[in-house]
Write a structure and sequence with these properties.
Blueprint (H helix, E strand, L loop, with lengths): L21 E12 L2 E9 L8 E2 L2 E3 L6 H13 L7 E8 L10 E9 L12 E8 H6 L8 H18 L13 H12 L5 H10 L4 E7 L9 E5 L15
Parallel strand pairs: 1-6
Antiparallel strand pairs: 1-2, 1-4, 2-3, 2-7, 5-6, 8-9
Length: 244
């Protein structure tokens, strides 16, 4: 028999038989600011794509797991020392030509966060800021690498999550009104929702929200009841998008 012998076990494994490639993390950090769904972006300070906008992220270090890398890169590029809100893996991206430097596979992460102040660019970025998601998706070439695709996937994941989970409260302050929660759904889904119908569904969903016993003080209107996140992680019944 000619050619390489069949691999029969781990003792025959040779890493040199396989091409090397790098692993990165990229973060889709979503928040609702000024009644609009926005995403955290940095301006790249070095090649490739120097001067272009991009999602925060970078290479995974040896001995570092993916979640640690995501937190470190967010701190290095935006000055955020703690990942706010909810963090989860989104998807992996491994097209051979996605990075002009070398073969790079990116494991993207999705973050839901309440309204945050403007970030401060760290050592690896020339600038950092919040940008409307709709604006960036309307101009996909504004983002470096394949980050427009990652952002689009992150938006769709967020929209789906809001139908079947209680993660919409991650976009809210610790205590919030139903109107504030509705604003989250409207910003993420891009749809106007009927206030009374939304209130009925939210307060009727088991464990979604619970009253705090307090009310908000609003100038020119009646105080609104304040709620906090409930104990449930899933929504029952589901809160479906209009047209679903």
């Amino acid at each position: 028999m000619t050619g390489r012998a069949a691999v029969s076990g781990p003792e025959n494994y040779d890493p040199a038989d396989y091409p090397a490639f790098a692993v990165t993390v990229d973060l889709v950090v979503l928040t609702v600011r000024e009644h609009d769904l926005q995403v955290l972006v940095i301006r790249r300070g070095e090649a490739p794509f120097a001067g272009r906008s991009a999602l925060p992220g970078g290479f995974v270090w040896p001995g570092e797991d993916l979640a640690e890398a995501a937190r470190r890169e967010l701190a290095e590029e935006t000055g955020m020392q703690v990942v706010p809100g909810h963090l989860e893996q989104l998807a992996s991206y491994g097209a051979p030509d996605r990075d002009p430097r070398m073969r790079v596979v990116s494991v993207a992460h999705l973050v839901f966060a309440a309204d945050l102040p403007s970030p401060v660019a760290g050592s690896d970025a020339a600038a950092a800021d919040w940008r409307p998601v709709s604006e960036l998706l309307a101009h996909p070439r504004w983002l470096a690498f394949d980050h427009s695709r990652i952002l689009a996937d992150g938006l769709e994941r967020a929209r789906s999550k809001l139908e079947y989970t209680t993660l919409a409260t991650s976009f809210c302050p610790p205590e919030f009104t139903v109107a504030q929660l509705r604003e989250v759904y409207e910003a993420v889904w891009g749809e106007r929702l009927d206030p009374r119908n939304f209130h009925r569904k939210v307060t009727g969903a088991t464990g979604f929200v619970e009253p705090t016993g307090s009310t908000s003080s609003r100038a020119g209107g009646r105080p609104a009841e304040l709620f906090r996140p409930g104990a449930a992680s899933g929504l029952y019944p589901a809160l479906l998008r209009p047209g679903s």
